[in-house]
Design brief:
single chain, alpha+beta, 2,3-Dihydroxybiphenyl 1,2-Dioxygenase, domain 1, 2 domains, 5-stranded mixed beta sheet, 4-stranded mixed beta sheet, 3 helices, 9 strands, 17% helix
Length: 167
C-alpha cells in the first residue's frame, strides 16, 4: 500500500494518447494533416469533426469546428497550446517529411537539434504550432556531469538530414 507521503510517479508506460484541435475550416485542416503529413481519417463526426491517425490507431489527432468554424487564429501571445509534437520512428522518416514539405513549398518556422532529438517546426493552416521530430537513441542523449539531460537548441543541419534519403 502506498504511503500518503510518497510522491506519486506516473507509470513509465504512460503516454499522451491524442490531441484535439479546434480549427476554423475542417476540410483545410484535413488537407494539411492527411494530404501533406500523411495521417489517415479513421472516422468523421458529421461535417464538424474528424479523427485521424497513423498506423490504424483509433485517433492521434481530433479536429473540430464545434466552437471555432470561421474563427481567426488564436493570438500567439495568449495562453493555450504551444505546439503539437509528432514523433517519427527514424531520422530517414523525418527526412522524408522534410522532402514532402519542400516539394509542397510549405514554410518551416524553425529547425533545431536538441541533442536528444532533431525537430522541424511549422504552423498548420490555423496557426497551431506543429513539431515534427525523431528521437535519437537514449544511449546517445547528452548528459550533464550530474547525469541529468543536457538538452539544447542548435540549428539543425537540413542538408545532412536530407542526405538520409540517399542511404
Amino acid at each position: 500500500m502506498e504511503s500518503k507521503n510518497e510522491k506519486f510517479v506516473a507509470p513509465a508506460e504512460t503516454r499522451i494518447g491524442h490531441v484535439h484541435l479546434k480549427v476554423a475550416d475542417l476540410q483545410r485542416a484535413l488537407a494539411f494533416y492527411t494530404d501533406l503529413l500523411g495521417f489517415e481519417i479513421t472516422t468523421m463526426y458529421g461535417e464538424q469533426a474528424a479523427f485521424i491517425s497513423a498506423g490504424g490507431y483509433h485517433h492521434h489527432i481530433g479536429l473540430n469546428t464545434w466552437y471555432s468554424e470561421g474563427a481567426e487564429p488564436a493570438s500567439p501571445y495568449g495562453v493555450g497550446l504551444y505546439h503539437t509534437a509528432i514523433v517519427y520512428p527514424t531520422r530517414k522518416d523525418l527526412a522524408r517529411i522534410l522532402d514532402r514539405l519542400r516539394e509542397a513549398k510549405y514554410p518551416l518556422t524553425g529547425a533545431s537539434d536538441h541533442g536528444v532529438s532533431e525537430a522541424l517546426y511549422l504552423n498548420d493552416p490555423d496557426g497551431n504550432g506543429v513539431e515534427l521530430y525523431w528521437d535519437r537513441p537514449k544511449e546517445q542523449w547528452p548528459q550533464k556531469p550530474d547525469g541529468s539531460l543536457e538538452m539544447y537548441t542548435r540549428p539543425l543541419d537540413l542538408h545532412g538530414l536530407m542526405n538520409e534519403l540517399n542511404r
